[in-house]
Structure formats: structure tokens, C-alpha cells
Specification:
There is one protein chain. This protein has about 180 residues and is an alpha+beta fold. It is about 20% helix and about 35% strand. It is globular and about 40 Å long. The N terminus is likely disordered.
Amino acid sequence: MTDVFITLLEMGPAPLGAIAKGVGLIRSFFPDQKKDLQDVVYRVYEDKQPKGKVRVILVNEADGWNKAVRLCIGKDGGWGECKAGDTAGTVAKGDHHLKYSIQTIDFPWKTSGHQYIALQLWKPKALGVWYSLEEIRITPKNQSDYDGKTLVIYWGTDGSTYFHNPNHLIKPYQL
């Protein structure tokens, strides 16, 4: 291995730059969960939604890559999706820099027997391959945290600090 390194050094900086660039491209194929989660901010709003359900809103920068929140009911109970970004979602009335998507979901344990709702955060990586970044579970035990409320997931463009500023956290009534 040392001979290869010495040969590349003798050939000059171009091959080393190509190797570094190649390593960067390979790294971009693999998700970095910790880094990607830095782009996500959550807020729960008590805005008098109907009891027995939760409203989920995904807010993204309008020019950012699409992001999605999949709302899965139990293991086999079906799913819906909030999707917002450059080619999906609705432009926010209160801030044209943002797009959003809304889904309201009933708590299933009273009617279907399913014991949780999984809110899965999905985003594309290299070559547009989507991966699941995080999962938030709503169960009968933590239902009161979300019952009749709105959960807003603010998800910025990779590396953006836009949503780290509390003034940029658009409220549900401003959409």
C-alpha cells in the first residue's frame, strides 16, 4: 500500500485530488444520520384540532430537495405522506421561501387495534435514492402529547441553518 501512495505523490497533486473527490462522492452515497438530523426542527402547536387525531405538517425551503414524512399506521395498517420541496408541496402564504404539505391522521388503536403511528422522515441521497432518516412513534402512552394538536416538522436544505432561527418557524395558521 505504501508503494501506491508514493507513486501517487510522485505523479503530482492531480491524482490525489481525484482520489479525494472520489472518496467524497462515495461518502455522499451513505447517509450521515447525525449530520442530516441537524437540518430538522420539531414543534407541537396546540391549535385546537379535533381530538382523536394529530395534524402533521412538513415545511421545507421551496428550493430545497424534496423531503417526505411517511405516516404509517402500525405494521400493516397503510400509510400516507407529506412531501415538500422544490417539486412538491404548496407555497406558504406567510413566506414564499417555504413549501409545506399537510396530513391529518386518526389514532388507530380505538378502531383498528394498531398500536402505533410511525412518522418516518425520508430524504433522497446520491442518485435520488430515498432513505429513512428518523422515526417518531405515537402510541397510546404518548398520545396526549399530540392529541388534537399539530406537529410541524421544519426540514431545511442540507446544511442550512434557516430553521434554527425561531423567527423562521412559520406557524400553522400562516400557511
